[in-house]
Write a structure and sequence with these properties.
The structure is a single chain. The chain has 393 residues and is of the alpha/beta class. A seven-stranded mixed sheet has the order 4-10-9-8-7-5-6, with helices on both faces. The chain has a four-stranded mixed sheet with strand order 1-2-3-13. A four-stranded antiparallel sheet has the order 11-12-15-14. A hairpin with a 4-residue loop joins strand 2 and strand 3. Helix 2 packs antiparallel against helix 9. The mean pLDDT is 96. Bound molecules: pyridoxal-5'-phosphate (PLP). The site of pyridoxal-5'-phosphate has 15 residues, from helix 4.
């Protein structure tokens, strides 16, 4: 553990895990005091293919030798941006063929909401209770955790929150709505998986009212749920997709993706409708491209579902576990109280495994290891978790 938190460094939480990092490789984080931890949260769904994947490192080194930042997004032609945008278009449905690169997930959602408003000329936004879309003012406005929002009001006007997975509320979406923004599987609400019929009804309602449907896949993207993108589980396609976290292969980036026609609206009325200095940074694009290629080439998606099912099966019978909500390697383990979750997270550290909290679901802890964790590593991880849970009775 670090001996103290540097008072020159901001710390937004009151109980930081506080391990002091020396290096990280694959699923392991090594600390300055010589310990090695299994990272079962992948830096909160960023290190989906593990830390410092060799193909990502190679791409970063190659790009470093060429150029770093040269100009704000959208002015120069930069091969790393073009190559990555083309690969994203290849793996996505044809209506999601145009990518705007941002710096983070929250900025991706800001861009998506602005695009939808610009495209429709409408102002009303529909979002969902329990949702997390980021921490900037716009993203916070569509978030569904009032406790995290009240201190920052006034936020965006004309935002309305529906219950997640409640088909009978979808009539609130009408021709006045500029955008519906939803996580297709809610992450920070504690892994909430909606019915397929609900997602299809949502899609149908948005189509009928000509309302852009935004899927926030910042956390669910890039294999986390067993498919490249979570929307594939529901056979529905959004009008705008937002990405972040694992998108950059360990470097900071986000993106909002739509059709070329819709995206053109940001170019006019007025011109430069969304701008960013660092969005599409060449180093991040090179890393993100290499990471996505590695997922595809190494067929990393193939075993995510069965690995997740294995982990669930190992943990579920334990007496301190109340319920497990899981899809792929995206898992919430519910306990009887928030205190028990605190105790569990601390007990994990003693066994050299890292689990973590949810923002809006304090009686569950999260597990989301790198999707390429080996079977052997997964078994070892499960045994360590069980050993920690055994100390909690
Ligand atoms: N959207 C979702 C679903 C997220 O889980 C997060 C972060 O946890 C964000 C948006 C915000 O992304 P960032 O932290 O990169 O701003």
């Amino acid at each position: 553990m670090a001996s103290h938190w540097n008072p020159n460094l901001a710390c937004p939480g009151d109980t930081p895990l506080g391990i002091e990092v020396q290096s990280a490789q694959g699923i392991y984080i090594r600390t300055t005091d010589g310990k090695s931890y299994m990272d079962l949260i992948a830096g909160l769904s960023v290190a989906n293919i593990g830390h410092r994947h060799p193909k990502v490192m190679e791409a970063i080194h190659a790009q470093m030798d060429q150029y770093l930042h040269v100009m704000v997004f959208g002015e120069y032609i930069q091969k790393p941006q073009n190559r990555f945008a083309s690969l994203l278009a290849e793996v996505l449905p044809p209506q999601l063929n145009c990518t705007y690169f941002t710096n983070s997930g929250t900025e991706a959602n800001e861009g998506a909401l602005k695009l939808a408003k610009r495209h429709t000329g409408r102002t009303r936004i529909i979002a969902f209770k329990g949702a997390y879309h980021g921490s900037t003012h716009g993203a916070l406005s569509v978030g569904g955790n009032e406790q995290k929002k009240y201190a920052f009001r006034p936020l965006l006007p004309d935002v309305h929150h529906l219950e997640f997975n409640a088909t009978d509320q979808l009539n609130a979406i009408d021709e006045t709505v500029a955008a519906v923004i939803i996580e297709p599987i809610q992450g920070d609400a504690g892994i909430r998986i909606p019915e397929k019929s609900y997602m299809q009804a949502l899609r149908a309602r948005c189509t009928a009212t000509d309302t852009p449907l935004i899927f926030d896949e910042v956390q669910t993207g890039f294999g986390r749920t067993g498919r490249l993108f979570a929307f594939e589980h529901f056979d529905v396609v959004p009008d705008i997709l937002t990405l972040g976290k694992a998108l950059g292969g360990g470097l900071a980036m986000g993106a909002f993706i739509s059709s070329r026609e819709k995206m053109a609206d940001l170019q006019s009325k007025p011109m430069l409708g969304h701008i960013t200095s660092f969005g599409g940074h060449p180093l991040c694009c090179a890393a993100g491209h290499a990471s996505l290629k590695a997922i595809l080439e190494e067929k990393m998606l193939e075993e995510v579902a069965s690995k997740g099912a294995y982990l669930k099966k190992m943990l579920e019978p334990h007496p301190v576990v109340v319920e497990i909500r899981q899809i792929g390697l995206f898992m919430a383990v519910e306990m009887e109280s928030a205190q028990k979750v605190n105790d569990a997270v601390q007990a994990f550290l003693k066994q050299r495994v890292i689990g973590f909290y949810f923002l809006s679901c304090r009686n569950s802890f999260r597990l989301a290891p790198p999707i390429n964790i080996t079977r052997k590593e997964l078994k070892e991880a499960a045994l360590r978790l069980l050993k920690a849970l055994n100390t909690l009775n």
